[in-house]
Design goal:
It is built from 15 helices and 14 strands. It is α/β, with parallel strands linked by helices. The protein has 2 domains: 1-319, 3-Layer(aba) Sandwich (Rossmann fold); 320-400, 2-Layer Sandwich (Alpha-Beta Plaits). The chain has a 6-stranded mixed β-sheet, with helices on both faces. Helix 4 runs parallel beside helix 5 (101-109) and helix 11 (253-267) crosses helix 12 (273-283).
């Protein structure tokens, strides 16, 4: 890896790849000066176009005639498909069955042949390699390739040009291609700038490999952030991360969902799970960023709309904005009105009520009232609970929806 190669990639990509905005994000944290690199607004909705496009541009005419083959959870697939379409060559993409249908169809619309493989990214990779041996097409690896990494490294050039005084860059990590390119370029140009990686807790293959001082493969991955659901990082990316990345942390799916919700509400940005992990790490204080000027990469926006409502609900629940109480009381006229008044006076909104008679070993005239509410946060919910108790109501169940 050399800086010259990354600058060459930037030159090649300039007419074909969007230079995405760097957006101030003051609303999420008060203890750091945060900016977002909005690669979710990139062509194809992801940074992956950069590495794929540059790699394919380096192929010889003979290699281009054979066509290209790739494996991807969806974003690299679209990058390869668009690059192949622009350069007039054929593309075959192996996609794991867990990939969102929207990503699969977007890849097909760009003219690529899509082959779906049961399982995760690593299963698609195995199938693609076997097919490549028979077809003779050129394999475009999504992360373990120096030209792909150089293409992703162009992001760092844009950040450092726009933010020369940036003190930390926070990057999503799956197989490691993005953070490898960013970390290398950043440390060559501004060694004092920290580069932090973030993985989903259920797919922490790079973190696990660094802790064990060698590339390790996870037995399974479990996260809705399909873009970073990788069982094993690459040898090249592992070496670069070991040398140039300062720290890698993990976030839970609940924390990722909360970050997606925050980005939608506060910045009107749609991020997929993989694209929101850097923001999640900052939001939940996973990194030493107090007082620093920070740039977080929102790496993609190709969220599966079929689960978007569930992601939003999970984010609301995690922040205490959807809450529930089960109250035991005497079944008599006016009780529901009194309970509703308490909640309304405290500024919450009841969205669902379930009234059930009491069970065995309870008062014959007793009942259970299950309330689902919109609340401001966990502290607000706690105030409602304490007020209910002070009014003599017995709470037998509580929590978030």
């Amino acid at each position: 890896m050399t800086l010259d190669r990354i600058y060459q990639a930037a030159h090649v990509l300039k007419p074909s790849v969007r230079r995405t905005e760097i957006i101030p994000y003051p609303g999420i944290k008060s203890d750091c000066d945060l900016y977002l690199k909005a690669e979710n607004l990139q062509l194809t909705g992801s940074f992956k176009l950069r590495g794929a496009y540059f790699k394919i541009s380096t192929l010889s005419d003979e290699e281009k005639k054979k066509g290209v083959i790739a494996c991807s959870a969806g974003n690299h697939a679209q990058g390869v498909a668009l690059a192949a379409k622009d350069m007039g060559i054929s593309a075959t993409i192996f996609v794991p069955s867990v990939s969102p249908l929207s990503k699969i169809e977007a890849t097909r619309r760009l003219g690529a042949e899509v082959i779906i493989v049961d399982g995760f990214y690593d299963d698609a990779y195995t199938a693609a390699i076997e097919y490549q041996k028979e077809s003779g097409q050129v394999f475009i690896h999504p992360f373990n390739d120096k030209d792909v990494i150089a293409g992703q490294g162009t992001l760092a050039l844009e950040i450092l040009e726009s933010m020369p005084d940036v003190e930390a860059i926070v990057v999503p990590v799956g197989g490691g291609g993005l953070i490898s390119g960013i970390a290398y370029a950043t440390k060559m140009l501004n060694p004092a700038c920290k580069v932090y990686g973030v993985q989903a807790m259920g797919a922490a293959s790079m973190q696990n490999s660094l802790e064990n001082e060698g590339v390790c493969s996870l037995e399974s991955v479990q996260t809705f952030a399909d873009g970073i659901a990788v069982k094993s990082p690459g040898e090249i990316t592992f070496d670069l991360c070991k040398q140039y990345v300062d720290e890698i942390v993990t976030v839970t799916d609940d924390e990722i969902a909360t970050a997606i919700l925050k980005l939608m509400e506060q910045e009107k940005l749609v991020a997929e799970g993989a694209g929101a992990v850097a923001v999640a790490a900052i939001l939940f204080d996973k990194l030493p960023l107090c007082g620093k000027k920070v740039c977080a990469i929102v790496s993609g926006g190709n969220v599966d709309v079929n689960i978007l409502s569930r992601i939003i609900d999970r984010g609301l629940r995690t922040t205490g904005r959807l809450s529930e109480l089960t109250v035991e009381m005497i079944d008599k006229p006016g009780q529901l009105q009194e309970v509703s008044a308490i909640i309304a006076n405290l500024g919450a909104n009841v969205i669902k009520v379930i009234h059930n008679p009491s069970g065995e070993n309870t008062a014959i005239n007793g009942c259970y009232l299950h309330l689902s509410m919109e609340t401001k946060n966990r502290e607000h919910f706690q105030t409602i609970k304490e007020t209910m108790l002070s009014k003599g109501y017995r709470i037998i169940g509580q929590g978030t929806i």
